[in-house]
Amino acid sequence: AKWGKMFRNAAWRRSLLCVLALSLSFTSPPCKARIYTNHWAVRIAGGADVAGRIADKYGYRNMGQIGNLKDHYHFFHSRTIKRSTLSSRGRHSFISMEPKVEWIQQQVVKRRIKRDYKPAPPLSLSSPAHSNIFYNDAKWSSMWYIHCNDDVHNCQSDMNIMGAWKRGYTGKNVVVTILDDGIERNHPDLFQNYDPQASFDVNGNDMDPMPRYDASNENKHGTRCAGEVAAAANNSHCIVGIAYNARIGGVRMLDGDVTDMVEAKSLSLQPQHIDIYSASWGPDDDGKTVDGPASLARQAFENGIRMGRKGRGSIFVWASGNGGRSRDHCSCDGYTNSIYTISISSTAESGRKPWYLEECSSTLTTTYSSGENYDRKIITTDLRHRCTDSHTGTSASAPMAAAIIALALEANPLLTWRDVQHIIVKTSRAGHLSAPDWKTNAAGYNVSHLYGFGLMDAEAMVKEAERWKQVPAQHVCVENADRQIRTIRPEHVVRSVYKATGCTDNPNHVIYLEHVVVRITITHPRRGDLSINLTSPSGTKSQLLANRLFDHSMEGFKNWEFMTTHCWGEKAAGDWVLEIYDSPSQLRSQKVPGKLKEWSLVLYGTSLHPYILSSDKQRSTDMLTPTEEEEYDGMLQIQITTIFTSCINLGFNTFRLVIS
């Protein structure tokens, strides 16, 4: 009897534990253990020889400098477990005590997702009856997003790519690199434009970016993206790339553990040779992840825009994300949310919102991609020397945008990274793109959370590039943080007004806006219940965050940076209104209030109007093709000015590019 009673009690306790575990699974986020690798990033002063000696002393192998990050080295420790949920301990960990070691970080695996989706089997394609430009490539007549001139389908407006071609721009002398799972460099449509100097295998640590083949063709993604950009024209094979005379490279970096170091190496590859980096991947689009670049990748971005392309700045193009079905919001993705990237959205040929699309205020512009299963998709190169008519998602949109930017860079190779963004803002058009939230900001730009400033227009971009005058120096105004703690109650709005000056007491103040960043810290029992809006002094409202159904996290936001482009061209000074609304979901076990702990504004822009520079002479096309020696020999200066607007040095720098 005694044993029976104990057994029944044990069984009852196990049942209770099961019920508790099941209930907790609906109210708490799953535990995501960190996976530590046997690779380290180390910052060591004194050069490569010093780094090598320190590596040998502690049993590491120095794998070399991390990309172009000065004094940063990749150390490998063969006796450490390759993947572990525990950080490494042992004698080798004493390396941090070396005087020359300024910083060391064991690399952790970061979950990164390619931004295509698994569509239904491809539909048969109807070809338009005619085109005023003809190429003999097998799928040319079906490339609807280049020549949108048939009445059979719903395509109403193309991106004027052929207009740019007619003006003589095909991407010549521009280098584009696809950061992905490799590219099939010997593909019949790619080998002619393949550039080995713009390529690397980060996963295998060699120069060959060829993808790893398997039965499911898992690593097709990069090859598909590359074809959109630079597939050769008039070779009777597959398609015509939008920038079909550009040079194309590939970085194999997604076919293995992705770490901060892997990303930094990829983003900083050959920055004086590569003009445009195209990335169609990012953190998980699952509607519950908040993630972005870590310290090394952030440094790679900053180095790229400061020093890449002889100081004019590397161009980073990013797919905005495919989390629409998961109610994701791309403001929770620190890559698309960065001022250094050009975030690209998608539209179907009909101009309707694709089912996978995410909405956010950081999106700059839009190109075509797939929509519903019955909509036509993107045709491009595929693995094993093949061609596909099923490229999809924002994965297809980013390389399309990169190719159009390549046409603009051919028209004017002196464009800076900010010039490119200004030209995109000025030339993108709402057209037939269907969105309920189109609005005109105070500077006269139409803008939407779905599509940014609209559909890209290649001909308008190259025409603008031909006559472009460089925009004034970028200024950065870091306004003082509002640290008044406010309670966020369920079903209530927290409203905070900040009177910004644009740092008028500083000669490098901001009057005309480009990017606006809100840095915010919030504690909350269920992050997905929050929505956040920012209204500019001119009355333009940006939705920084929408409710996310699957985001059960209790972590809130800690110094997370939300970014909006919707105030582009507006005045910076005046009252900025932050509104936070808590919509408690049924999944929330307790209606515990959250807290807004602090928030601050970072205003990026200029003190002069970017398009009224009467002292500048209009640039002629003869001035746009200097030799490399002319470009680099004293022409480009970088003037660095730091703005301090509070008692704490926040370390934001502005960089002035002066053509003399």
From TrEMBL:
Biological-process GO terms, alphabetical: peptide hormone processing
A GO term for molecular function: serine-type endopeptidase activity
Record's keyword annotation contains Glycoprotein: yes
InterPro entries on file: Galactose-bd-like_sf, Kexin/furin, P_dom, Peptidase_S8/S53_dom, Peptidase_S8/S53_dom_sf, Peptidase_S8_Asp-AS, Peptidase_S8_His-AS, Peptidase_S8_Ser-AS
A GO cellular-component term linked to this record: Golgi membrane
Domain P/Homo B: 470-609
Active-site residues, record numbering mapped to chain: 180 (charge relay system), 221 (charge relay system), 395 (charge relay system)
Pfam families: P_proprotein (PF01483), Peptidase_S8 (PF00082), S8_pro-domain (PF16470)
Alphabetical keyword list: Cleavage on pair of basic residues, Glycoprotein, Hydrolase, Protease, Repeat, Serine protease, Signal, Zymogen
Signal peptide boundaries: 1-33
PANTHER family attached to this UniProt entry: PROPROTEIN CONVERTASE SUBTILISIN/KEXIN-RELATED, PROPROTEIN CONVERTASE SUBTILISIN_KEXIN TYPE 5
Record family assignment: Belongs to the peptidase S8 family.
Protein's recorded name: P/Homo B domain-containing protein
Organism, scientific name: Mola mola
Lineage: Eukaryota, Metazoa, Chordata, Craniata, Vertebrata
